[in-house]
TrEMBL record:
PANTHER family: HYDROXYACYL-THIOESTER DEHYDRATASE TYPE 2, MITOCHONDRIAL. It holds the Pfam family FAS1_DH_region. This is FAS1-like dehydratase domain-containing protein. GO terms for molecular function: (3R)-hydroxyacyl-[acyl-carrier-protein] dehydratase activity.
Length: 302
């Protein structure tokens, strides 16, 4: 008899590998200063530096690891990265070793406009080599029902032209984000993300019902974070909050702009469309460290 699923902690020692950091820098191609061994890892870049490849035998139909091990056995087919929050207690150094602790802290069934959904919240803690807490992160995953095959599909990937550098600065705090299948493939590889909606056009359109390949939620979030790294390179980030509001599809031009938020030092949004119809895809807010006021991080209790 199979035991019912229970949340449990997954603890591992991880090397902050410079190679995927270099790969992510090359992918974003934003003009920011290069990052190497001994440098502080930019906020959220642990998604690449600490990416974990699942065994091929563990993968399900959608390309993700089959549910029921670390993540709960949710029976809804669509999965999206909905957002989260990151707190930097002290910088992680590229080339160092950290301990990673991850745990599902809540599983909440809901009903939305598109039907049933389940919200799964994952908590991640990263500790430096001396046991000091360096980063805490909360991630929200949403599982939804599948949609019918979309009639207004985008062009098949083989008909697209390369976009070159995906992030392009127009002026201060105004950037463009452009994607093509190669950008999505490289990001999937950099972050060990085998989800088929990002590279398998027939699966994305015919099985999950999207109009085209789906741009990764973490890629949209990192694009916003990267503009902060370029625009304010000397200001260390203490906290980031981010939320993905609507999917962005491959080849759809998008733009990054500042937005008003009285509760944050800085707020950015990723938009597509024109003056007649605008879609807001991702929102990210950042709070910066005041020099000399970073609090001492607690040590591990394990």
């Amino acid at each position: 008899m199979t035991s019912p699923w229970q949340p449990h902690s997954v603890v591992s020692e991880e090397y902050v590998d410079p190679a995927p950091v270099v790969a992510l820098s090359a992918l974003l191609d934003s003009g920011a200063a290069p990052i190497g061994s001994g440098d502080p890892l930019p906020p959220l870049w642990h998604w690449a530096a600490l990416a974990r490849w699942p065994a091929s035998s563990a993968l399900g139909v959608d390309g993700h690891p089959r549910r029921g091990s670390f993540l709960p056995p949710v029976d809804l087919p669509r999965r999206m990265f909905a957002g989260g929050e990151l707190r930097v207690h002290q910088p992680i150094t590229v080339g160092s070793t950290v301990r990673r602790e991850a745990r599902v802290v809540s599983v909440t069934p809901k009903t939305g406009r598109t039907g049933r959904l389940v919200v799964v919240v994952v908590q991640i803690r990263l500790y430096s080599g001396d046991g000091t807490l360096a980063v805490t992160e909360r991630q929200e995953l949403i599982y939804r029902e599948a949609a019918e095959s979309h009639s207004g599909r985008s062009a098949r990937p083989e008909t697209t032209e390369p976009v070159g550098a995906p992030l392009r600065r127009q002026r201060e705090w105004e950037w463009e984000l452009r994607t093509d299948p190669t950008v999505l493939m490289r990001f999937s590889a950099a972050t060990a993300n085998p989800h088929r909606i990002h590279y398998d056009w027939p699966y994305a359109t015919e099985i999950e019902g999207y109009p085209g390949l789906v741009v990764h939620g973490p890629l949209m979030t990192l694009a916003l974070a990267e503009t902060i790294r370029v625009e304010r390179p000397q200001q260390p980030v203490e906290r980031m909050r981010h939320r993905n509001l609507a999917p962005l599809f491959c080849q759809t031009p998008a733009r990054i702009r500042r937005r008003r938020d009285p509760d944050a030092d800085l707020s950015l949004t990723l938009l597509s469309g024109d003056a007649n119809r605008t879609t807001e895809h991702t929102v990210l807010t950042a709070d910066f460290t005041v020099p000399g006021e970073r609090t001492h991080a607690p040590r591990s209790h394990l």
